[in-house]
Amino acid sequence: MKEIRILIPTPEDLLPDEFYKHMFNAMREFLLAVKCIVDAGIAKIDEIDEIAKEKKEIQKVEIE
């Protein structure tokens, strides 16, 4: 019985190392962009929270 081996190349075999370098940098930039969106959302929530705290002041009303 004869044995036949078929080698299937992996992406590392087909793509140059520079490709991976660029892809990692692109992923980093994408994640930084998402982080900016999240930070802006958190800042808006903090602003709303401060406004809500200012409106919660208790006013004393005298009844005769």
Strand content: under 5%
Instruction: Outline the low-pLDDT stretches.
Output: none
What is the H/E string? HH
**Outline:** rod-shaped
So how many helices?
2
Largest sheet: none
Distance between the termini: 108 Å
Say how many strands there are: 0
Amount of helix: 55-70%
- Classify the oligomer: single chain
User: C-alpha Rg, in Å?
Assistant: 29 Å
Q: What structural class do helix, strand and pairing data support? A: mainly alpha
Mean pLDDT: 90
Characteristics:
2 helices; 64 residues; mainly alpha; single chain; rod-shaped
Detailed description of the structure:
This protein is about 65% helix and about 0% strand. The longest helix has about 40 residues, at about 15-55. The chain has helices at about 10-15, 15-55. It has about 60 residues and is an all-alpha fold.
Summarize the topology:
Layout: H1 11-14, H2 17-55
Short recap of the structure:
The protein has helices spanning 11-14, 17-55. The chain is an all-alpha fold.
